[in-house]
Amino acid sequence: MEIYDLIIIGGGPAGITAGIYAARQKINTLLITKSFGGQVARKAVAIKNYPGFEEISGMELIKKLEKHLRKQKIDIERDEVTKLKKIGNHFFVQTRSKNRFQSKAVIVASGADPRPLEVPGEKEFIGKGVGYCTTCDAPLFVNKTVAVIGGGNAGLEAAIFLSLIAKKIYILEYGKKVGADEINQERVKKTKKVEIITNTALKRIRGNQFVNSLIYQDRKTRKNITLPVGGIFVEVGSQPATSFVKGLVDFNEKDEIIVNPKTGETRIPGLFAAGDIDNVPYKQIVIAAGEGAKAALSAYNYLQKF
Ligand SMILES: Cc1cc2nc3c(=O)[nH]c(=O)nc-3n(C[C@H](O)[C@H](O)[C@H](O)COP(=O)(O)OP(=O)(O)OC[C@H]3O[C@@H](n4cnc5c(N)ncnc54)[C@H](O)[C@@H]3O)c2cc1C
Asked: Which of 41, 48, 93, 275 is deepest in the core (most CB within 10 A)?
């Protein structure tokens, strides 16, 4: 088995940037990722805060990041890491397709997955009307009535994007008011297709072959209300994708990997984390990219002394 200097897990902004920096330091590197772009693929409206691009779609930014990475001398595997362990001073990585890899250092940049609703009917109707990526699934809902669950920025941006395609969009928010930025609230108000319902607790998703309704409780009156919808977009936040490092590193109360913010190193020598997966605040593309660069340079310093 070839022993890599470095294995990077994740192909979002943090992992891709780490890959570019590692290759430029001439570190023999393997990057393993389930997909390219990570959460950027879920961005429903244009990105306007990544320096150098006044406005760019998530898909366009991902294409550019992946192209930049593929220009480097780096090995790439499309796979899911299921287990990571350290024996002696080497790391052992196992993947979903039963491949095994070995390295002297690792950067975990596996980011975050959408948080599920955990209501009856959700799992049953995934891919049959329940979706977690508006940009990916919206074209299936031309002229349909749909619901977006969650009134944060992601929820309102999903509704704005859906308003170009769907007939009617409900936003269901648990709290007394939506938590999205003022600018997104104004944009939603301008589209006549979006209706915000606050104080809702989602109870159940129903359908036959495909979703046809949802039931929520009005938290003021405690009445259960059935809302006929053909699709449900889940935008209730994210959770760190950490299952494969359980038992190896320390986590905070949000299940984020605790790192030294100067280096990105975890409590395990040679094991670094970068991007949304770690406990550094402000989950943004530019921060994830910066952390990827920092972790790769720290890994380089670690490898010099290996
Ligand atoms: C809807 C939405 C809108 C957003 N809008 C903005 C915005 O406008 N501006 C901004 O700056 N930020 C925005 N963000 C936040 C931004 O997308 C994240 O901060 C950023 O993507 C984090 O990058 P990352 O590389 O740390 O993780 P991710 O983007 O989550 O990438 C993680 C990568 O790891 C891979 N992976 C996960 N688990 C495994 C595994 N076990 N094995 C192998 N690979 C794995 C995934 O496939 C993915 O490629 C938004 C996020 C969302 C959800």
From this structure: 275
pLDDT in tens, 137-196: 999 999 999 999 999 999 999 999 999 999 999 999 999 999 999 999 999 999 999 999
**Percentages of the chain per state (helix, strand, coil), in multiples of 5:** 25, 30, 40
CA of 37 to the centre of ligand 1 (A): 7
In the chain, the percentage of residues whose pLDDT exceeds 90 is: 97
- 38 close to 58: Cβ distance less than 8 angstroms: no
Q: Is 32 in the pocket of ligand 1 (CB under 6 A)?
A: yes
User: Ligand 1 centre and the CA of 242: distance in Å?
Assistant: 13
Task: Say if ligand 1 is within 6 A of residue 152 CB.
Answer: no
Q: What is the pTM of this model?
A: 0.92
Atom of ligand 1 nearest to the CA of 276: 26
Average pLDDT, the chain: 96
What is the tens place of the pLDDT at every residue in 238-277?
999 999 999 999 999 999 999 999 999 999 999 999 999 9
241 lines ligand 1 (CB under 6 A): yes
Residue 12 CA, ligand 1 centroid: distance in Å: 5
Does ligand 1 lie within 6 Å of residue 112's CB atom?
yes
Token pair for 223: 């009445």
pLDDT in tens, 266-306: 999 999 999 999 999 999 999 999 999 999 999 999 999 99
Residue 268: Cβ within 10 Å count: 15
